[in-house]
């Protein structure tokens, strides 16, 4: 399956929630939609699954030699932002119902139910009403409902919401397992640190627009204006010599052995390494990549400022 999204626009009354968004999704791998509240992620996902239609632009889904304007029914699992299972029914009743809706045979439903309840450590609770479960466990049942029919593609709107760190890790592991099985995953999330470890591709959105997209390397190239280096010496060195190098914001520890500094994105690091090594007995020299979280925050701030100037 291949998805091509081109210049997509969605408007609600006077608000343009999705503005000229373009990106593509290839088979396999995990693609993450990131953006602050109101960035337009759910609006985009709803068009992708065919719940709403774009005002302009195009979604083209190529699957088994055919082309569709949204993901064809039955080809995907969808965890919506508004969760919808029956609170007064047991986990088992809810999931059997979902399995029947998806057209699964009784034996297959039982098989999948056993597998997923065990995988999410909820087997013992199968006969409890959904409302008896914590928010996090309810979220896991919602995920099972999305995965029960083993779709080749899953669309997850905020799969980590309501989960504690232990369960976030658990879901992360399950998503990695699905990826290893060849499932394509498109998810929206706010948990940068988790998403950075999980996704292969990223689409960063703000105020309806894409502000950066691609692999982590590509995002760094698009958003980082500086890079940070860390280096250390086996004994104290005079900072005088270091200060004459092209290093900004040079900081050292109290012992004068460990340093960090900002350098230009295009600075030749090999050359810099030689210059730093000439200042003392160098132990370590490494480039430190800003976490996605930091890149994202500064990009969202500057993109919001640009939008405010424009409007
Ligand atoms: N059905 C609707 N009618 C009117 N406005 C809407 C509708 N759905 C979303 N919006 C508005 O469109 C903008 C984008 O909303 P959307 O839910 O797509 O963002 P989001 O990135 O998913 O946000 P969140 O992370 O909070 O879920 C918001 O300003 C929202 O208020």
TrEMBL record:
PROSITE patterns on file: ABC_TRANSPORTER_1, ABC_TRANSPORTER_2
InterPro entries linked to this entry: AAA+_ATPase, ABC_transporter-like_ATP-bd, ABC_transporter-like_CS, ABC_transporter_ATP-binding, P-loop_NTPase
Domain named ABC transporter: residues: 3-232
KW Plastid (keyword) present: no
Keywords for the protein's UniProt record, in alphabetical order: ATP-binding, Nodulation, Nucleotide-binding, Transport
Gene3D superfamilies: P-loop containing nucleotide triphosphate hydrolases (3.40.50.300)
One Pfam match: ABC_tran
Family: Belongs to the ABC transporter superfamily.
UniProt protein name: Na+ ABC transporter ATP-binding protein
Organism annotation: Aliidiomarina soli
